[in-house]
Amino acid sequence: MPDSDTAAPRVRFAPSPTGYLHIGGLRTALYNFLFARRHGGVFILRIEDTDRSRFVDDAEADILSALDWSGLAFDEGPGKPGRVGPYRQSERRALYAEHAEQLVRDGAAYLAFDTPGELDLMRDRLATEANPNPRYDATTRLAMRNSLSLGDEASARLVNDGVPYVVRLRVDPGSDVRFTDSVRGEVTFSTDAVDDQVLVKSDGMPTYHLANVVDDHLMGITHVIRGEEWLPSTPKHMLLYRAFGWEAPAMAHLPLILSPAGGKLSKRNADTLGIPVFTSAYREEGYESSALLNYLAFLGWNPGDDREVYTLEELVQVFSIERVGSAGVHFDVAKLQWFNLQHLRSVDPTEIAARSRPALEAAGITFDASYTARVVALLSERLAFPQDLATTWRWFFDDPVSYEEQGVRKRWKEDSAGLVRTLADRMPSDEGFDHDGLESVLRDLAEERGIGAGRIIHPVRLAVSGVTTGPGLFELLVVLGRDTCVRRLVRAAECLG
RNA sequence: GCCGCGUUCGUCUAGGGGUCUAGGACGCCGCCCUUUCACGGCGGUAACACGGGUUCAAAUCCCGUACGCGGUACCA
Hints:
- The protein contains 21 helices and 11 strands.
- By secondary structure, it is mainly alpha-helical.
- Helix 17 packs across helix 19 and helix 19 packs across helix 21.
- The relative contact order is 0.08.
- It binds one RNA strand through strand 6, helix 7, strand 11, helix 13 and helix 19.
């Protein structure tokens, strides 16, 4: 329906299966998704697997499952055929070859026979302090082995002899390439600074530059939304569109996600700071996908008002590419965790309980769905992650094995053991074992002894939980149940004296 | 080195010439909730990189410098 409307945008997320889905990649996918949904357009997933030397076998499966987990459903892509497939570049080789041939015929590209060794030699020869990275361009190409320097007959002979070659874009210096970027405005590059980019590698595979332009055109992509690392190669793409005589899609280059330590978020400078770089790790750490997406959406974009907590559906309603910022953004786990807390609040306790099961069982706790759900409900907004039940809140499942030292020093007095024992003796029977019943028993005891309620409340909390923090005392006692409470009170009285 | 992009509290940001003694959120700190608390309420800390212009008026426009980031591959 939307794809039959020519006015509807078509966007794509085009990851390379050279690794698992990076968190920055997820954000790029998210912005593409939001843009497509916001404008009633089509969101396409395209696998850019043209680098067979860096190909990772299960990367595509990881990308697919990460997208599925986060709810970024694509309309067309591998396993979801559309009219412009296939959606894996390795399955589109013939298309690139045809187009590369066309460029060569038109004189916009040429054949180059230089071996990797020869290229190194050229760079070594030409490299100076002032120019450490010599380019293969108009200033150097005539000194190299290509169809321009050798002539058509000579190069045809080489091709016939089976000499490997690449196809390079012929970039004419002396002009400017100008385009409007939706997030940065007008951007200009001089063709003097653009090299004769390789379009087809000697293994016959296209490079990203060729494949991306050919596919975006053939797939009817109207808006290219990608990371800023692509900005410097955009002039090459523009030159290609021009050479093919095609209209270029609108461009939007997203600010990069930076590590708090500086630089792109990578395994090296992020993992060590506790910031996972792969999407799957966020799932494993117990994040809500909606919270991750919410956080990612706000990394480089904001709706312009003070509201920050949004579901994916709500983000679709307010997203606009114009409000995307242009400066690099630092990843902040603390804020992500806050978003997670916000999102977890709206998840049903039964569901959270179910999700905590693996962690509880790994901790040796026998899973009890209804009891766990009651604990979750009691903890409500205090619970940051389902698996925290097995750590921070473990005492809801196992008797405390120790008592927080500082808490004992501060709250456990000479009379505590006696008070706790007395309370254990007076624990109401099953019918009276509720919030009010417990409170009156405790307060009566305080009054009887002529002491403040806190004198009993604090030791009791310590006795049953081992710590000094948690939900309201009476509510938690009710959840723990009479037998557990009595047992823990008596035990604490013995241990702490 | 060269090319490009960027620069408002520690972080994410609002701001698009006067309403800015710069607002919000996270974090942090304090107080309150006389039962706790990582919850909640209240309050606080903290920023327009620097230098020149333009203008009656600049965080907002222009130039330069510094700094950061990206690119500079037969990787994407």
